[in-house]
């Protein structure tokens, strides 16, 4: 099915062949998970080039592909196969200058077109298998977070907590984490990407946890902000504003709406409350094989949302030298609105 879709895109864009070099797109089209591969997609054949180490694995993981063994790069072999074909699609964003120069030399006289956008558009709509795997990854993260809550205590370092969260996700079936965890407490919680440090968590502090799991190549993404000890009124005020913005964003997430309009709906809540200058990143992004995929929910993305898109909704307020709050769920765009896939409750969790 995916090969049929990409071949239709080749015909629509008047491309004679497509050379695929990025590992995520190689996996998306073929199912191959090895570290050495190049795909050649033509109207009538699909070829996977790899080296001796992966021949058996490729034959198992990529049914329907002709497997060709190469030593080193495959471009000379590809050049011999593409005699007579004029317009070649390449992934400009995933091809080094050196490899492109090899292609130019091997395929002298051909015209190259950037085909990266074909994959971005194709992968925006998740199929049922992909949605099921994303659900599994999200479930792992939800359960790991719930199990780890009882292990958090004042004096614990951010790095120790990060390890606990990763270990818990691994025990539940995650193959890895989907990004470097953000574990930021106290004034460090004002850092939108405050990765775990040796800082010890203390009472009277926010604690922002942004974590994710990879399950069978698909990612989850999740953020909750906790409070250690008794929060003051401003802590609760900021938390409630972010929660309102997050719920507003989820309500705005529906087919036919532009990505930037979902961002605007949630951003307006924070701006109206007087904290607009403290929300400087996009409202969310798609995810799947990669943690950041298109479309993005930001002030510029004109993409019209469609059923099958999976996106994060993650507004935040970050006040320097004071702290910050972010709340993030993953949601699936449906025919009538959005289904929130993240199951962890969103009320402010207080650890006393």
TrEMBL record:
Residues 2-125 form the Creatinase N-terminal domain. GO terms for molecular function: aminopeptidase activity; metal ion binding; metalloexopeptidase activity. Keywords: Hydrolase, Metal-binding. Residues 133-335 form the Peptidase M24 domain. PANTHER family: AMINOPEPTIDASE (PTHR46112), AMINOPEPTIDASE YPDF (PTHR46112:SF3). Belongs to the peptidase M24B family. This is M24 family metallopeptidase. The lineage of its organism: Bacteria, Bacillati, Bacillota, Clostridia, Eubacteriales.
């Amino acid at each position: 099915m995916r090969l049929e879709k990409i071949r239709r895109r080749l015909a629509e864009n008047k491309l004679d062949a497509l050379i695929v070099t990025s590992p995520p797109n190689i996996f998306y089209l073929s199912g191959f998970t090895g570290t050495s591969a190049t795909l050649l997609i033509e109207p009538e054949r699909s070829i996977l080039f790899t080296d001796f180490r992966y021949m058996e694995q490729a034959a198992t993981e990529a049914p329907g592909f002709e497997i060709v063994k190469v030593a080193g790069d495959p471009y000379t072999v590809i050049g011999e196969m593409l005699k007579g074909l004029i317009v070649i699609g390449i992934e400009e964003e995933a091809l080094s200058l050196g490899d492109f120069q090899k292609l130019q030399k091997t395929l002298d006289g051909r015209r190259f077109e950037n085909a990266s956008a074909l994959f971005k558009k194709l992968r925006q709509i998740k199929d049922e298998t992909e949605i099921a795997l994303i659900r599994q990854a999200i479930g792992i993260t939800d359960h790991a977070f719930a199990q780890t809550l009882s292990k958090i205590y004042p004096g614990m370092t951010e790095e120790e907590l990060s390890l606990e969260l990763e270990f818990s996700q691994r025990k539940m079936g995650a193959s890895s984490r989907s990004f470097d965890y953000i574990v930021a407490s106290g004034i460090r919680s004002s850092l939108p990407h405050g990765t775990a440090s040796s800082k010890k968590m203390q009472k009277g502090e926010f604690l922002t946890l942004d974590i994710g799991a990879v399950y069978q190549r698909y990612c989850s993404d999740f953020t909750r902000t906790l409070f250690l000890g008794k929060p003051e009124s401003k802590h609760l005020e900021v938390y409630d504003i972010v929660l309102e913005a997050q719920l507003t964003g989820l309500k705005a997430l529906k087919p036919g709406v532009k990505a930037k309009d979902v961002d605007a709906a949630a951003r307006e809540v924070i701006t109206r409350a007087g904290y607009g200058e403290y929300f400087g990143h996009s409202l969310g992004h798609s995810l799947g094989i990669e943690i950041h995929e298109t479309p993005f929910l930001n002030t510029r993305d004109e993409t019209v949302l469609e059923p099958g898109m999976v996106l994060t909704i993650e507004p935040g307020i970050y006040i320097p030298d004071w702290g910050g709050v972010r709340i993030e769920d993953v949601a699936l765009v449906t025919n009538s609105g959005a289904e929130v896939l993240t199951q962890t409750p969103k009320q402010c969790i207080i650890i006393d």
